[in-house]
Amino acid sequence: MKVTLFKTLPLMLAAMLFSMTSWALELDDAKAKGLVGEQVNGYLGLVKADNMEAAALVVDINRQRKVKYQEIANKQNTQLANIEKIAGEKLVEKASEDHCCPIVGDSK
Predict the structure, then answer these.
(1) Which of 40, 44, 46 is closest to 86 using CA atoms?
(2) What residues have CB less than 8 Å from 32, skipping those under 6 apart?
(3) Residue 83 confidence (pLDDT)
(4) Which helix (H) or strand (E) holds 38?
């Protein structure tokens, strides 16, 4: 049976959306457990240094954020640091007090 792109594309999109939803729940769970928190620099910070899963999550999300921030900076013809600052302010403002953390080291 020949599989066409039009038949497989919706399945691929559904799988991608599912994986993004799982990632979001993982982040929310890590925040709820106090393992990670938002920082004013626009990146996630690691609260519990001894949790390897949380550390990997921070690295992965911060990598994705940096790529997105750079894309925005390029489109707006501005420095990456400007976008990081604006994003950080918005993320901290949006997060509850329990989901923020001070900048301890470079978590980018």
Answers:
(1) 40
(2) none
(3) 92
(4) strand 36-38
**To which residue do tokens 């894309």 refer?**
71
pTM for the whole structure: 0.67
Residue ranges of alpha helices (H) inside the chain are: 5-32, 52-76, 80-94
Helix axis angle for 52-76 and 80-94, nearest 10°, is: 130
| 99: exposed, middle or buried (Cβ count in 10 Å: 0-12, 13-18, 19+) | buried
Mean pLDDT of 87-105: 68
Overall average pLDDT of the 83-104 stretch: 74
* Distance between CA atoms of residues 12 and 19, nearest Å: 11
CB 49 within 8 A of CB 55: yes
**How many Å separate Cα 31 from the centre of its chain?**
12
